[in-house]
Amino acid sequence: MLPISDLDTLLRTLEPQLQHGTYVYVLSNETPDFNDVRVVAAIRETEGLSLIVEESYAREKCLNAFFECAWITLTVSSDLAAVGLTAAFATALGKSGISCNVVAGLNHDHIFVPVHQATLAMHELRALQQSKNHSS
């Protein structure tokens, strides 16, 4: 599927999907086994390697969890050069007091929200999608 860059189309076809499980942000001094499916994302920072991992991985590796979150994937195939998508969903979530941390993959955007607000976040994302479907 070709990636979509048109903001209205992206918003009409967000199709958020809540991933199963609880995820955590951790700091690691060791490079993880990236073949382990519980390792979701990594970024190297001056302070060390920041990871987003399943909670079970952090416990197993004795890593201190700094942020417990739910993982929502926007299943629309979004273009990395698309303008306004992150701003639109971050604004919608922010109006409901939901913080979000975003990781862009090649095909999809992934949103990490506080685990206790996952249901509300899904509601807000679906409402954003529906509002665009009804305004077209």
Name some characteristics of this structure:
alpha+beta; VC0802-like; 7-stranded antiparallel sheet; 7 strands; 30% strand; ACT domain-containing protein; DUF2241; ACT-like_dom_sf
Structural class: alpha+beta
Strand content is: 25-35%
- CATH class equals Alpha Beta
Mean pLDDT: 95
Output the CATH topology: VC0802-like
Q: Radius of gyration over alpha carbons?
A: 16 Å
Q: Give the tally of structural domains.
A: 1
The number of helical segments is 4
CATH architecture: 2-Layer Sandwich
Instruction: Tell the overall outline.
Output: globular
Number of strands: 7
Largest sheet: 7 strands, antiparallel
CA-to-CA gap between the ends?
23 Å
* Fraction of helical residues: 25-40%
pLDDT < 50 runs, ≥5 residues = none
**Quick one: CATH superfamily?**
VC0802-like
Order of helices and strands: HEEEEHEHEEH
Notes on the protein architecture:
- The protein is an alpha+beta fold and 136 residues long.
- It has a single domain, classed as VC0802-like, CATH 3.30.2130.10.
- The protein is built from four helices and seven strands.
- Strands 1, 2, 3, 4, 5, 6 and 7 form a seven-stranded antiparallel β-sheet that branches.
- A hairpin with a 2-residue loop joins strand 3 and strand 4.
- It is globular and about 50 Å long.
- The two termini are 23 Å apart.
